[in-house]
Amino acid sequence: MNKPAATDAGEFGDLSRSQIPPTDKKIQSPAGGKTMRDFWQWMFSPSRRGPMLVAPALIMLFVMNIFPLMWSFGLSFFHYKASSIRPPRFAGLYYYEKVLTDPVVWERLQTTALIVALSVLLQLVIGFSLAMMFEKKFPLRREILMLVLTPMMLSFVAVGVFFKLFYEPTFGLLSQGYAYFMGEPMTLLATKWGAVWGIVIADAWMWSPFVMLLVLAGLVSVPDYLYEAAEVDRASKWKRFVTVTFPYVRGLLLLALLFRTIETFKIFDVVYLITNGGPGTSTETVAVYVYRVAFQFFKTSQSSALSYILLFIVIVLTNLYLYFVKKRGEEG
Amino acid sequence: MKGKFSITGALAAGIVASGLAISVPAVAKDIVLNMAGPDWGPTRFLQEYFNKTYKAKSGNNVKLVFDFIPWPNFYDRVAASLTSGEKKYQMIISDSQWIGTFIEGGHFMKLNKYIDADPELQAIMKDIHPAMIENYSTYPHKSKNYYGFPQFPDTKVTWFRNDLFCHKGEQAAFKAKFNDTLPCSYDEWKNADWGTWENVGKFFRRDKGAKLGDGVAEHDFYGIAYQAGKVADFSSMQILAFIWQHGGQIWDEANEPKAQALGVVNSPESVKGFQHYLDLLKYAPPAHKTGQMGIFAIQELFMQGKVAAIIDWAGVAPPALDPKVSKYHDKTGFAMTPGLRKSDGSIDRTDNIGGQPFVLTTWNSEEVTKEALEVVKWWMSKDVQIEFSKNGGEPGLMSVMNSPEYNDYLPWNRAHAELLQYQKDVWHTPEMFEMLTQQQEEFDKAITGQKTAKEAMDAIAKFQQELLTEVGRIK
Question: Quick one: B195 and B333 in the same domain?
Fold first, then answer.
């Protein structure tokens, strides 16, 4: 029997033609009058199989994500209100200038920065402390760990409603407890700082377990012999932490810082439900403000411009942290 | 055989011919009316009663499918639906202030041609209270362009604990302390002004364990409460009452573009009215300090027995009489709201009207529009309005409100009917929501002590002047 030429068999090497599966055949275009079976074979031939299977997800991504992004970016350069029947008119950079010179936007950014700073700091401290606690073995560790992780599994709305009721001055548990000792109810959300801390506590309660998980992953990876060596050298607890523990968790801690900063920067649900941006506008974050401008005032172009400015800020922050992570990695 | 006459064929032809001669009845069509409405008693009743009793005169199978939306999200959801272009709803129960936004957006249908062509609709319009026509239906405000019919007219009324207000001991103590009558009967409440309301606030502030009526206060107890909520229009709906009663004004959209905001919205009278509101708020439960004491919060406070009297919408009153949710369902009375006593001794009760109109959307076909208007006519018929009145609702027809039995249907009906003459409304222009949001924020700052009344009113006036000038409504 003549051996088939290598080029004929293609990827099947020395297999004879009779051994080569039919799908490996070069199939002519369906327009050449082939059967439906031939068409499907052509569609799902090995070279096309991967792209075809991924195509539905890509189409969905394009329709739900990429196209709206592109469309809204385009709208930011036009005068357009979703509630109006007037067609869009080109506006150039008008709305970007308007947003960047609007003192209200800067005020909202400051409020957001304040909440981000306090919340992320609290999450890091609590998360790290919890990780240090769960690094050790103790009775019921697994069960308690499951309970500690539960807040992270809840929906934002559930957390928002829970804390709104928790802080309520007449019915809420916090006020009831305060009144038991102090004789009068607590109105935490009545002042700017009270409302800010109310939101920060709710957000930290929900996301500290996330930081804990990341840090715990780093802590359990520290080899025991390093601690033994440090003990032999009679290093203090603090010295051991700084020279042994911290280097192993530093990268993960930075990762947690990065993720939580980006997520908290976008905080909306918890703020909207607990304070609705109040008292006054003292806890109105930039995400809540974008929502109002877009879906209550219907200033579509203005909200699009503001959204892209925020996206730019998040990209800058992301790149900044990645730079420091890389730099630390190189130094290490 | 060719040419032979077929008896069978002739018979068949005869049958067909006779069939064609008989008029065939039109096939009944299935028509679905999707309606968006707030999720509360009046709309739930509408759906249930429609399902039970409605039969389309056209013979079509008309189905009403309600999309019940919680009040705090109602505007956002309806607005998102309309602006997205999904054209989901054939009818909407719209809050009166939004109609300008959605009329100018091309979503709400002008009804004049249908009203002019239908004597039944004309009769209904004549039987609707003028305040309702003006505030629910017209755009521009107070014009002759009609866009809606009242689905649920609403006013604020006083809810009070009649076991406390009619308690002989409490009455005597009140008289001794303030030389004022603790209102118990309808007429006594009719004579109550803000001074009495303040005295009630001071009088019924009791700590837990203090004597209260025939028993003791189970919790810290407060005398009065009214809306002080940042969400939606809660604070504004009460504050505007004070502003108007003190002689202040809001920007007058009926006189655009001449009407100004600066100097009008923050006039000394407006500031005085707002300050009066703030002064009385200190007698309310501590929730007011957070700016989150909206219509449902004060309803809950009253039903749980933490406050002696509140001012809240009649639309949310039915649960107060429900033993399943209200601890004092059998000890609750209703009356007219207090007001500002004028120099001639009369009481000014000017207030902001509540309630919502039905509107039709512009993408309805003629057939759907006709069926939707038939639903409106059914709803606005006397029998249905009476049934609605007996089940927690308020009628849109004066003939029903003027009937002797009306006051007996529900304990707040008499107050509601008498308060209609005092009702005004906030703006209806497309900029309404932006103006309202900013106004709510400024009111909230003053309520939570971040600003004075004057600073808040100045900020509101400045914002409105700039915004309305930018859009050409002030020149």
Answer: yes
- Chain B: closest CA distance from residue A24 (Å): 47
> Can you give the pLDDT of all 332 residues of chain A as single tens digits?
444 444 444 444 455 555 545 554 444 444 555 688 888 888 778 888 888 889 999 999 999 999 999 999 999 999 999 888 888 999 999 999 999 999 999 999 999 999 999 999 999 999 999 999 999 889 999 999 999 999 999 999 999 999 999 999 988 999 999 999 998 889 999 999 999 999 999 999 999 999 999 999 888 888 888 888 888 888 888 888 888 888 888 888 888 998 899 999 999 999 999 999 999 999 999 999 999 999 889 899 999 999 999 999 989 888 887 787 777 667 65
Q: At what angle do helices A141-153 and A103-135 cross, to 10 degrees?
A: 170
**CA closest to B439 among chain A residues:** A280
Does any domain span residue A3?
yes
**Of chain A residues 266-285, which have a CB less than 8 A from chain B?**
275-282
Please report whether residue A192 resides in a domain: yes
CATH code of the domain containing B126: 3.40.190.10
B396 in any annotated domain: yes
Residues of chain A neighbouring B442 (CB-CB closer than 8 A)? 280
Across the interface, whether the CB atoms of B306 and A170 are under 8 A apart is answered yes
Q: Which residues of A touch B292 (CB under 8 A)?
A: 168, 189, 275-276, 278
On whether both A129 and A278 belong to a single domain, the answer is: yes
Containing domain of residue B392, as a range? 30-154+355-424
Separation CA B138–CA B295 (nearest Å): 26
Q: B445 vs A281: CB contact, 8 Å cut-off?
A: yes
ipTM score of the complex? 0.82
DSSP string, A238-263: HHHIIIIIHHHHHHHHHHHHHHHHHH
Q: Are residues B275 and B189 in the same domain?
A: yes
**C-alpha B409 chain-centroid distance:** 19
State how many domains chain A has: 2
Which helix or strand (DSSP H or E) is residue B419 part of? helix B413-419
